[in-house]
Design a protein that fits this description.
Oligomer: single chain
Mean pLDDT: 82
Number of helices: 20
Number of domains: 1
Low-confidence stretches: 445-457
Order of helices and strands: HHHHHHHHHHHHHHHHHHHH
Shape: globular
Structural class: mainly alpha
Length: about 450
């Protein structure tokens, strides 16, 4: 069964397993890869360098926001085009994602290199962590063109259902990063510089792999000849990518605010938050992998006007996501002491991290509902609703809540602020998804035709 035929005809659970499992494996590798820097730095006992990696996190998130903008936007646009049978539009969208990624990466590199010190202060670094944070950020900035483009293509490759191929590229890159971390950090003694260099080289490997895969496919194009800034291509890719990208970007700024508040409780609190947050990040990434994996199938069915298929996929994926969130949160709660102690050998960080991990896990059982709502809205092209849902969780609600709860409850308020934001965003996401689903059901001809797409091109 071809990838496109599978998206169109495969039974729900077979479709979910075949498309989501590879992406879940990638997200798990991504979590391990994000944990690797802190883990190996923690083995050196350098608490300030661990805190520096956490403080520099927003810089990495900004790069991720742009590769998400082009990758998820390109994936959605291409899948819809293939659902309509418009292969030429799919090639134009893939070329736009490639070359826009290169351009944005270069701009990000220049900005961060030129303004490193002001950015470090903005992120809340103090005298003890500023130097380490600056070093980590500068090296990531030099790799931004590779990271932005490679991250985008890792998502674009999934658009025709080739999730296994896309997963392999991300896994190879992640393994490269994890393998280089102990060499650069422990053997060579390069500290945070070694962690950053390993991250960049891992992304270079992923980029090279994705380029090779795309050159072999008739559904994609790397050629600059297919690059266009016409609205029906550029605005479509950017528009479909905005929800997740805006959420990721706002999460960067939210992290800055959160880190600044947390720094008032000391670098130990920042390090503990970085370790405890790994548990919820692991669960969230698994659930996100399930939803991201199935997204091309939703977009393909929506592009083909098959509303029944869309409902079937969304319902099944939502159930699977909730079950996963519940099971994983329970496991982490039971083994929280060992998890925190295994990440950093610092008694103060361990004790505080065990408290923080509870706040990180408490809403994971409902995170699947939130993520499925966001994915459904984005996959079906309802950009405004999807963006609102993403921004609610990452900033509109979260930022006021962290300041309010910190003022009222201090450190304990910060620990549970994210859980409050999760609940609000989930409720809004469900309501908006139901409203949009009813709108689609009442207007089955909302999907644009192939003829209109070709005319616009």
């Amino acid at each position: 069964m071809t990838n496109e035929k599978m998206m169109k005809e495969a039974p729900m659970w077979k479709l979910l397993l075949s498309m989501s499992v590879p992406v879940v494996l990638v997200t798990l590798m991504m979590v391990v890869y994000n944990m690797a820097d802190i883990f190996f730095m923690g083995m050196t006992g350098a608490t300030m360098q661990v805190a520096a990696i956490k403080l520099a996190g927003p810089a990495f998130s900004i790069i991720q926001a742009f590769n998400t903008l082009l990758g998820m936007g390109g994936c959605t646009a291409i899948a819809m085009a293939l659902g309509r049978g418009d292969r030429e539009m799919a090639k134009k969208c893939s070329s736009f994602s490639v070359w826009a990624g290169v351009g944005i990466g270069v701009v990000l590199m220049a900005v961060v290199v030129l303004f490193t010190n002001p950015l470090v202060r903005l992120m809340g670094a103090d005298a003890a962590t500023a130097g380490y944070t600056a070093t980590y950020m500068r090296i990531l900035a030099l790799g931004a063109p590779f990271m932005a483009t490679g991250g985008a293509l890792g998502n674009v490759v999934r658009a025709d259902g080739s999730t296994a191929k896309a997963a392999l590229g991300s896994i190879v890159g992640t393994i490269t990063n994890i393998a280089l971390d102990p060499l650069f950090i422990l053997v060579f003694g390069w500290g945070v510089a070694g962690a950053a260099i390993a991250t960049v080289l891992g992304n270079v490997v992923t980029l090279v792999y994705c380029v090779i895969i795309m050159r072999k496919s008739e559904n994609f194009s790397l050629s600059i000849k297919n690059f266009t800034m016409k609205k029906d291509v550029s605005l479509k890719v950017i528009g479909y990518g905005i929800p997740m990208a805006a959420g990721t970007l706002l999460m960067s700024f939210s992290s800055i605010f959160s880190n600044n508040l947390m720094m008032k409780h000391g670098p130990i609190a920042v390090a503990a938050q970085g370790v405890a947050g790994m548990s919820s990040m692991l669960i969230a990434m698994v659930i996100m992998g399930v939803c991201m994996g199935i997204q091309p199938a939703i977009s393909y069915a929506h592009g083909a006007g098959d509303n029944r298929r869309v409902r079937q996929i969304v319902r099944g994926t939502g159930i699977a996501s909730v079950l996963l969130g519940t099971v994983l949160a329970t496991v982490f709660f039971i083994f929280r002491d060992g998890f925190v102690a295994g990440m950093l050998n610092d008694p103060e960080v361990i004790e505080l991290g065990k408290r923080m991990i509870i706040g990180s896990l408490i809403t994971m059982p409902i995170y699947g509902v939130y993520q499925m709502s966001s994915t459904y809205l984005q996959a079906t092209g309802k950009v405004s609703y999807a963006t609102l849902v993403s921004l609610l969780r990452q900033g509109i609600v979260f930022i006021p809540i962290i300041y309010t709860m910190n003022a009222l409850l201090g450190l304990n308020g910060l620990i549970f602020a994210g859980a409050v934001a999760d609940v609000i965003a989930t409720v809004v996401g469900v309501v908006l998804s139901v409203v949009w689903a009813r709108k689609i059901a009442s207007e089955p001809k909302m999907v644009e035709s192939v003829e209109r797409a070709k005319t616009a091109a």
